[in-house]
Amino acid sequence: MKFIVFGQIGSDAGYWYLGPDGKWHHGGGWGVDSFIEVNRALTILGEAARFKTPGLADSVSKRLTEFVQKELGAHLGDHLKDGGVVIINASR
Predict the structure, then answer these.
(1) pTM for the full model?
(2) Structural domain boundaries in the chain
C-alpha cells in the first residue's frame, strides 16, 4: 500500500510518498492555483455530506469527485496506479 502525504494546501512544495523501500521520497510540486482548487473541492465534498435534501449530496459529490480524481490522477498517476492512500493536511 502506498501513502501519499500533502502538507499545507495552497503550497506548491509538492508531496511526500512512502516508497517500496520503506523510505519517504519527495514528489514535485503543483501550481498553487491547481492545488487551491483541489482543496476547495475537497472542502465542499466534506460539507456536501451534510445535505439533508434527497439526492443533493449525490449530485454535488459526483461532479466534484470526478474533478478531484482527474487532478490527483494527473499529478499522482504513477503513484496511484496500484492503489494507495492520499492524506491531505488541510489545517490552516
Answers:
(1) 0.62
(2) 3-88
